[in-house]
Design goal:
Strand content: 5-15%
Radius of gyration: 23 Å
Helix content: 25-40%
CATH topology of the largest domain: Rossmann fold
Largest sheet: 5 strands, parallel
Structural class: alpha/beta
Oligomer: single chain
CATH architecture of the largest domain: 3-Layer(aba) Sandwich
Number of domains: 3
Order of helices and strands: HHHHHHHEHHEHEEHEHEHHEHEEH
Number of strands: 9
Number of helices: 16
Length: about 400
């Protein structure tokens, strides 16, 4: 019989990988006399191997044994996955109160606040944990908010997060430009053409290697901090129209639907934002007659779409993607960068989400409050099967 391998105290802080989770999950359960971190670790293993209800029981047991940031954060993640959103938020609040210096608790709490629509509470924690670039301060002062004049000031804006994050926060650069700021944007090379087309100076960042003349700027600004510094809330936000524009309108010969089944989840242990092959096939089959389907998953060939619709694989930079996006009557996608691009361009978009979605998609909204063209299909719990079925029915109603 495989012996259960307890982890040491030194391993408590390490994030468990999927392979480690599989190894622990296939062993025996922690015994009655197990230590609290052994029980917590087993709960994480159950979660990573999709035994989520069992994971909840062990996470609750670990919390009873020791109420600390580690056990409470684990419990919060599992509660969230099961659709217990309010319980997950309360658990995270407790974790942050126990140790306000522990980023595991405060980072999670900040994002749960944001997803709950409590932006004023969430932004400070989000900026602290996701948008801090204190390493720049020896070279340049940080722009801290509207109390600092930006007219005729040159601001070095530095990217953060994934492409979706950059597209989400990009809208507020227009605010600074309207106030007279001269913005230079450090971004990935394949994002730079899109940035330049919006009339910003793009500085291409090759895997962290970029030369900056610090003395040429008045301030630096982490892009992911801008909404918090502007005090954006769901109550005061006003949509001012599409803020990303394509280079050119490609010729439309048919009515077009874009499908994107894959999210960029290379670092995600559960990979829960990507559709299963069977789910994606159902969506292809549900497309009404008279529409051409475009595969909007970048650099991913899909045999059925190619053979049935003769559309090319999406390649190139983000400006090319925007050009293709401009031809669509509708985009159906999982949570990934093209969802944010469609929202930014005002293209009708249906986004399929797991219940425990990213913070960018506020709970209890049928349409995204910051992307009016985006309709949200959120699963009511673990996985995305119910959300996919709702989209199928919506497509059937178009026939």
């Amino acid at each position: 019989m495989r012996r259960y391998r307890p982890i040491s105290k030194d391993e408590i802080e390490a994030e468990m990988t999927t392979e480690e989770g599989k190894e622990v999950a296939t062993g025996p359960m922690p015994m009655r006399d197990a230590l609290w971190w052994e029980v917590k670790n087993y709960a994480s293993a159950m979660y990573l191997t999709h035994h989520t209800n069992e994971a909840l029981l062990f996470a609750q047991r670990a919390v009873r044994m020791r109420r600390c940031v580690s056990t409470l954060v684990t419990l919060s993640v599992i509660q969230d996955e099961l659709g217990k959103y309010e319980e997950a938020l309360e658990t995270s609040i407790e974790a942050a109160k126990i140790d306000s210096t522990d980023d595991r608790g405060t980072a999670r709490l900040g994002e749960l606040y944001l997803r709950s629509g409590k932006l004023a509470e969430g932004w400070p924690l989000y900026i602290r944990n996701r948008a801090s670039m204190d390493w720049c301060k020896p070279f340049l002062p940080e722009w801290e908010g509207p109390h600092q004049e930006v007219k005729k000031k040159r601001i070095l804006v530095i990217e953060g997060g994934g492409y979706g994050d950059n597209l989400y926060f990009f809208r507020w650069l227009h605010t600074l430009r309207r106030w007279g700021a001269d913005i230079h944007y450090v971004c990935q090379p394949d994002f730079a053409p899109l940035v330049r087309h919006q009339k910003y100076r793009a500085i291409e960042n090759w895997q962290g290697n970029v030369d900056v003349r610090w003395d040429a700027y008045d301030y630096y600004l982490p892009l992911l901090s801008i909404a918090g510094k502007l005090g954006v809330t769901l109550q005061n936000y006003r949509w001012e129209g599409p803020y990303i524009r394509a280079h050119k309108q490609l010729v439309r010969r048919t009515k077009n639907i874009g499908l994107c089944f894959r999210a960029g989840e290379s670092k995600s242990p559960r990979k829960q934002r990507t559709l299963h092959n069977e789910q994606f096939q159902r969506l292809i089959d549900a497309v009404p007659k008279g529409y051409t389907v475009y595969n909007m998953a970048h650099d991913t060939w899909h045999k059925d779409i190619e053979e049935r619709y003769h559309t090319p694989m999406l390649q190139g930079n983000w400006l090319h993607t925007a050009n293709v996006m401009s031809t669509l009557d509708l985009l159906i996608t999982v949570d990934t960068g093209v969802a944010h691009l469609a929202g930014a361009m005002g293209v009708p978009c249906w986004v399929i989400l797991p219940g425990a979605s990213a913070w960018h998609y506020p709970l209890h909204h049928e349409f995204h409050p910051l992307y009016p063209s985006m309709k949200i299909f959120r699963n009511s719990g673990e996985g995305m099967e119910l959300a996919v079925s709702k989209v199928e029915m919506k497509l059937a109603a178009m026939k």
